[in-house]
Amino acid sequence: MNLTLRIWRQSGPADKGRMVTYQVEDVSPDMSFLEMLDVLNERLILAGEEPVAFDHDCREGICGMCGLMINGNAHGPQRGTTACQLHMRQFSDGDTIDIEPWRARAFPVIKDLVVNRSAFDRIIAAGGYITAPTGSAPEAHSVPVAKANADAAFESAACIGCGACVAACPNGSGMLFTAAKVTQLGLLPQGQPERYTRVIGMLDAHDEAGFGGCTNAGECTAVCPKGIPLTTIGRLNRDYLAATTTKRPDTP
Q1: What confidence tier does 248 reach under pLDDT thresholds 50, 70, 90?
Q2: What domain of life is recorded for the organism (predicted)?
Q3: What pairing do the DSSP bridges indicate for beta strands 69-70 and 73-74?
Q4: Total Cβ atoms within 10 A of residue 207
Q5: CA distances (Å), origin 101, targets 46, 64, 166, 180
Q6: 177-189, pLDDT tens digit by residue?
Q7: I need a surface site. Which of 67, 196, 220, 241 has the fewest CB within 10 A?
Q8: What phi-psi label fits residue 80: left (phi over 0), alpha (psi between -120 and 50 degrees) or beta?
Q9: Residue closest to 39 by CA, chosen among 55, 63, 22, 20
Q10: Residues 111 and 137: beta-carbon distance below 8 Å
């Protein structure tokens, strides 16, 4: 395939940035999207031009580094797929593809398609740690957990922190990410001692980072590559309501 790529180029946070057009020829439909960008960068380097900066790591859809807006869609047109697992067979010969970084106040652009997602790290840090002594790996089923809770906790733990939810949200909210991290521990016995201080701390960190408020638009779960449902935010809201309306020993 021969493609026209319109890519956001920005030399640094202080630069205004602009869309730059590139032509890429002989793209195999079996290439991943990132492999196609690798081909472009090889040609730019050989031509003595600055390659396009973009984040990537595992290229297996499990690390969350490869966040890109592709034709206005977080991670591209295929649902439940990260950009690194998106293949060029999803496009056609002659297509024009717009490639941009995540757009959110809490994710400032570092360079080109790379953004600073350390706000997510601060939310995680605000959750603190688990004081429940767990020791070495327990025997299977030694701690009873209701099947529904175990399934929901596992579903939330699948979050890879890619930031697609933030990029797709019209408010730039990080509530789906925050809710997934709160729910992951809040539904398990080991997470109970700090359950309510955790949700308060993480939501405070979410707001301090500059994320917008959640209005249940649902765009977040529509683009989540791991399919985390909107009901996860409902669980977070219930925990937060319980933590702020009822005096508990573990809350301020």
Answers
A1: low
A2: Bacteria
A3: antiparallel
A4: 12
A5: 25, 14, 12, 23
A6: 999 999 998 998 8
A7: 241
A8: left
A9: 22
A10: no
Tokens 């600055």 locate to 50
Whether residue 27 contacts residue 39, with contact meaning beta carbons closer than 8 Å, is answered with: yes
Relative to beta strand 69-70, strand 109-111 is: unpaired
Structure tokens at 55: 């984040």
Alpha-helical runs (H) found in the chain: 33-46, 118-126, 147-157, 164-168, 175-186, 195-208, 219-223, 231-245
Q: What share of the chain is helix, strand, coil (3-state, %, to 5)?
A: 35, 10, 50
- Number of Cα atoms under 13 Å in the Cβ half of residue 107: 27
Q: Are 93 and 58 in contact (CB under 8 A)?
A: no
Amino acid present at 95? D
Q: Which two tokens stand for residue 134?
A: 């767990």
Q: Residues 108-158: pLDDT tens digits?
A: 999 999 999 999 999 999 998 888 776 776 676 777 889 999 999 999 999
Per-residue pLDDT tens over the stretch 49-75: 999 999 999 999 999 999 999 999 999
How many angstroms separate the CA atoms of 105 and 96, rounded? 27
The C-alpha angle with vertex 113 and arms to 109 and 115, in degrees rounded to 5, equals 35
CB of 51 within 8 A of CB of 141? no
